[in-house]
């Protein structure tokens, strides 16, 4: 019969079998070694967050940039419905789908989506959910303005929605909320799962 020495037993107990939410968290420094790259990703995160927050504020108050004052959400405007119904015009093969689902509920979902995604990006927490939901929102916006059938499309396949979706995914995949955000604190609370 073999004898197990005390130091061999202690090595067995040194194996870390904890769940990621129990304290094992990957931080940005482990996957992005360059300080400048981490800062550039944080700036990208801020730019994307500001893009979503600005769209929310402009559609809410009608600041006159993309939304006229009389079309502001607080003045009874329909921020998502106008966009969705506008996609039904012309030859867009997805236009009728968007016209059929346009309604008050889509305005609420759209506006709270813009706000939630923007806040998550600016704070640096919940970036994975922001990336998934933001990319889905951008995909639907892409289909509603499908460039292959748009009058003034500069590229028949890709447009800025693709670039923004990829930026969201890169920000989440690199834990860009750890730099100049609350990402590290949030990661210690939730681990590396979907809430990260």
Can you describe this structure in just a few lines?
By secondary structure, this protein is mostly helical.
Report on this structure.
This protein is mostly helical and 196 residues long. The protein has nine helices and no strands. Helix 3 packs antiparallel against helix 6, helix 6 packs across helix 7 and helix 7 runs antiparallel to helix 8. 32% of the residues are buried.
Report the count of strand segments: 0
Bin the strand percentage: under 5%
Low-confidence stretches: 8-17
Radius of gyration: 22 Å
Shape descriptor reads: globular
Q: Distance between the terminal alpha carbons, to the nearest Å?
A: 49 Å
**Residue-averaged pLDDT:** 88
Query: SSE order in H/E notation?
Result: HHHHHHHHH
By secondary-structure content and strand pairing, the structural class works out as mainly alpha
Q: What is the number of helices?
A: 9
Helix content: 55-70%
Largest sheet: none
What's the structural blueprint in terms of helices and strands?
Layout: H1 6-13, H2 28-31, H3 35-61, H4 79-86, H5 95-101, H6 104-123, H7 127-144, H8 160-173, H9 183-190
Helix pairs in contact: 3-6, 3-8, 4-5, 6-7, 7-8
Features:
single chain, 196 residues, mainly alpha, transmembrane, DoxX family protein, membrane, transmembrane helix
């Amino acid at each position: 019969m073999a004898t197990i020495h005390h130091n061999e037993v202690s090595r067995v107990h040194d194996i870390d079998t904890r769940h990621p939410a129990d304290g094992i968290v990957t931080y940005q420094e482990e996957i992005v070694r360059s300080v400048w790259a981490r800062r550039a990703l944080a700036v990208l995160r801020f730019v994307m967050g500001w893009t979503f927050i600005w769209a929310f504020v402009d559609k809410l108050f009608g600041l006159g940039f993309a939304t006229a004052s009389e079309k502001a959400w607080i003045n009874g405007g329909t921020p998502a419905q106008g966009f969705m119904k506008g996609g039904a015009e012309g030859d867009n093969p997805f236009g009728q789908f968007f016209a059929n689902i346009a309604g008050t509920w889509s305005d609420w979902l759209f506006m709270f989506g813009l706000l939630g995604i923007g806040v998550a990006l600016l704070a640096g927490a919940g970036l994975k959910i922001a990336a998934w939901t933001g990319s889905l929102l951008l995909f639907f916006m892409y289909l509603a303005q499908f460039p292959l059938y748009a009058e003034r499309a500069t590229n028949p396949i890709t447009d800025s929605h693709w670039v923004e979706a990829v930026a969201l995914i890169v920000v989440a995949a690199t834990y860009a909320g750890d730099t100049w955000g609350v990402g590290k604190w949030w990661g210690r609370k939730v681990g590396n799962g979907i809430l990260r």
